[in-house]
């Protein structure tokens, strides 16, 4: 809580407020609520309310956690979701529109059924059988309409996006360095952050000397992933577990890198932008494609 979660929400709130194009999604509510109740200042709370109103901070799932899909009772899944959604609605007047289940190990048919009945507009998963994922990538079938219940059929179907082989983390390998890719954060210290507030920085910063190398690495990965999807929009998740605890470092490296790619978009053949999950799914929806239907 002290080394990671509190600093994620404090620093992200402050950094989002500095630039209108920046975005962030917050998933599980357990740590956010702890931060809101015990750490956030009145200023932070005003900023969060404004960011949510503007759609630049988006709550995804909104339950206390991403529930386990193998052994958790249905009653527990519903209860923890209800608690999280109740807090968000009472505090901000919003209801999450999309589910984000990138970390449960395995994807059961019960979860998309529950999420469709709960009113989610789209579902996102990641950890499935590697061979199945590889086949889905090759056939551009990572996105589909999931009917998890043979009896409820279309009453509970939900559009589902499967993360590709890189999962939910930014690729960490860079061919031009032994650093940690696009992470720029170092390692948090337990049980508390460093007294001077400065974390070690393990990635090469984006500078005039490195920006071209970073850009080409990122564009190559975007194009690799684009070949696995049917639309022209690639969801390129930026971050990893608790990575944004020092988000000023993150954004101060991401901003110039994205600007460089867009300024050279004719050469690279891509443009990039910050986006919430809702903005991504809206772009996919506007593609007006007919999607494969899959059963349980």
TrEMBL record:
Superkingdom: Eukaryota
Protein name: Epididymis-specific alpha-mannosidase
């Amino acid at each position: 809580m002290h080394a990671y979660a509190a600093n994620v929400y404090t620093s992200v709130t402050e950094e989002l407020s500095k630039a209108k194009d920046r975005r962030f999604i917050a998933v599980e509510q357990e740590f956010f609520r702890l931060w809101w109740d015990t750490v956030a200042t009145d200023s932070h709370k005003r900023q969060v309310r404004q960011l949510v109103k503007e759609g630049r901070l988006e709550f995804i799932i909104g339950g206390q956690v991403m529930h386990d899909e193998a052994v958790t009772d249905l009653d527990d899944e519903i209860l923890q979701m209800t608690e999280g959604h109740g807090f968000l609605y009472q505090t901000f007047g919003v209801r999450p529109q999309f589910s984000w289940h990138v970390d449960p190990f395995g994807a059961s048919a019960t979860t998309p059924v529950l999420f469709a009945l709960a009113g989610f507009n789209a579902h996102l998963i990641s950890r499935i059988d590697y061979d199945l994922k590889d086949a889905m990538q090759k056939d551009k079938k990572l996105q589909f309409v999931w009917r998890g219940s043979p009896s409820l059929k279309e009453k509970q179907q939900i559009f589902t996006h499967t993360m590709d082989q890189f999962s939910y983390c930014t690729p960490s390998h860079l061919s031009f360095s032994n650093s940690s890719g696009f992470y720029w954060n170092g390692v948090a210290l337990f049980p508390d952050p460093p007294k001077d507030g400065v974390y070690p920085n393990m990635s090469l910063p984006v500078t005039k000397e490195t920006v071209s190398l970073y850009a080409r690495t990122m564009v190559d990965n975007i194009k690799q992933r684009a070949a696995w999807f049917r639309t022209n929009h690639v969801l390129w998740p930026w971050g990893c577990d608790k990575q944004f605890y020092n988000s000023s470092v993150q954004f101060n490296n991401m901003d110039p890198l994205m600007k460089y790619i867009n300024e050279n978009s004719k050469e690279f053949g891509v443009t990039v932008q910050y986006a919430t999950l809702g903005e991504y799914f809206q772009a996919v929806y506007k593609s007006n494609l007919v999607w494969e239907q899959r059963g349980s």
